[in-house]
Amino acid sequence: MTEPGAADRGTVESPAADPARPAGPAGPAPGALAADPATYSAEHRVRRRDPVPAAAAVGITVVGGLVLAAMNGSYLGLTVTTGVGYAVVAVGMVLQLGYSRQLAFSQSVFMGVGAYGTGILETKYDFGSTESLLAVIALAAVVSLLIGAVVTRAPGLALALATLLLPLFVYQLATYSSYLGSFSGIDGVLPFWSGPSYEATLVRSGIISVLLLGLAAGLVLRVMRSGIGLQLMAMSADERLGESIGVSLRQRRLEVFVLGSVLAAVGGAVLASTQGLVTPDVLSESAEITLLLMVFVPGRKSVAGAIIGAIVIEYLTTSTSFISTNIGIIEGVVLLLILLVEPDGVAGGLARLLGRTVHGGTGHGGTGHGRAGGLAAVLWSRRAARLRGRGGGDGARNAA
Q1: Which of the listed residues 72, 137, 263, 370 has the most CB atoms within 10 Å of its CB?
Q2: Under a CB-based contact definition with an 8 Å cutoff, are residues 257 and 153 in contact?
Q3: How many C-beta atoms surround the C-beta of residue 341 within 10 A?
């Protein structure tokens, strides 16, 4: 997503468009914004509703439901529905790792929270599938808020190391805990929507799964294409720049961490309900590597790429015995090659072939400093307008 693209979708509001805000001399000079037509257009665009997130949510639900209905509860339908569960997690990782560049590797842990939470509530406490889903969402939100309040204070590398150790600890806990089923896990997890036969149950549960995926994709796109998305973009480009224009780094880091963790828990609940079984493998390091592969191979900033990548990679891992037997080696080698050769994945490679630079899932030319400068102008002018509305021109001039 580029800053002009975000503004064209109505995410930036002009201070002059609001008559309640008094005009003042402290805003950016007209010539400064006029020097950058894209930034000037962004600052003077009238806010309007963005149809893309809602359209994406509806499109994913309709297309996914039709595809699963056509598969009619076959083994391929089971594989695709399992891929949908991973896709929910991958969509959150696009915002967390790809768009915001938050180096947190705790997605498999919260995917396990969703899967094990669903299994425990349904098999031990007689919860229904809807009740257990809502409960694990609330649980993941609280746990991620508590953990994120600590770990997101750390800089990038420290955050990566801290969250990288979480899967090791939680995996050992699940493996040796009799309450969690030890090595065999928890069996008898309920489907989202039961039918008269196994095939009908798989189709109905798959439809609920793609509905959850559509909601997750729509939510992430809404964030990415909003004013908060501009702030996250500024943070990913340069945290000092973001802080200098009034972005609350700590708050935004925590919000992104919580949202990514909650979506991971929802994906875990989808996996548990689809397979009817939860094992410690969902918490393992290999599960985290698989998720990283699903995000980085198609393109770490592309929501559509993450969805397609998750389903395709899940299909490939179960298609042949050779791949399923050597999945750890194959995933490690492929991920290493992607990170070394093309960190932006397939989407980045195609964009470079077309002579464009991928940023936020949209092709836009220009250097990183140019984009950061445009973001600074847009966000600074919005902050100055707020200050003018509160305390007059002198307050905005002081903020400058």
Answers
A1: 263
A2: no
A3: 8
- Within 8 A by CB and 6+ apart from 106, the residues are 147, 163, 166, 167, 261, 264
Contact between 389 and 244 under an 8 Å Cβ cutoff? The reply is no
pTM of the model: 0.76
In the DSSP assignment, the letter for residue 358 is E
How far is residue 103's CA from residue 106's CA, in Å, rounded to a whole number? 9
Chain CA centroid to CA 377, Å: 27
Are 132 and 116 contacting, i.e. CB atoms less than 8 angstroms apart?
A: no
Q: Measure the CA–CA gap between 256 and 126, rounded to whole angstroms.
A: 33
Name, in order, each residue with C-beta under 8 angstroms of 253's C-beta and a sequence gap of 6 or more.
100, 102, 148, 152, 235
CA atoms of 233 and 240, how far apart (whole Å): 12
Rounded CA separation 257/148 (Å): 6
> Would you tell me the crossing angle of helices 227-237 and 368-391 to the nearest 10 degrees?
130
Centre a 10 Å sphere on the Cβ of residue 34 and count the other Cβ atoms it contains.
Answer: 11
Name the pairing type of β-strands 277-278 and 362-363. unpaired
Contact of 228 with 252, CB cutoff 8 Å: yes
Beta bridge partners of 293: none
- What residues contact 233, with CB distance under 8 A and at least 6 apart? 1, 3, 99, 359, 360, 371, 375
Q: What is the pLDDT of residue 158?
A: 78
**Category of 387 on φ-ψ map: left (φ > 0), alpha (ψ -120 to 50) or beta:** alpha
Which of 366, 55, 25, 8 lies closest to 221 in space, CA to CA? Answer: 55
pLDDT tens per residue across span 127-174: 999 999 999 999 999 999 999 888 888 776 778 887 888 888 888 888
Tokens linked to 252 = 């935004």
Q: What is the dihedral of CA 253, 364, 217, 101, to 10 degrees?
A: -20
Residue 285, classified by CB atoms within 10 Å of its CB into exposed (0-12), middle (13-18) or buried (19+), is middle
**How many residues in total does the chain contain?**
400
pLDDT in tens, 39-50: 444 444 434 678
With CA atoms as reference, report the closest residue to 217 among 98, 64, 54. 54
Find out whether 207 and 65 touch, Cβ atoms under 8 Å.
yes
- Which residues, including other chains, have CB under 8 Å from residue 358's CB and lie 6 or more apart? 299, 301, 344, 347, 348, 351
Distances (CA, A) of 391 to 28, 154, 245, 396: 17, 35, 18, 8
Q: CA 107 to CA 264: how far, in whole Å? A: 6
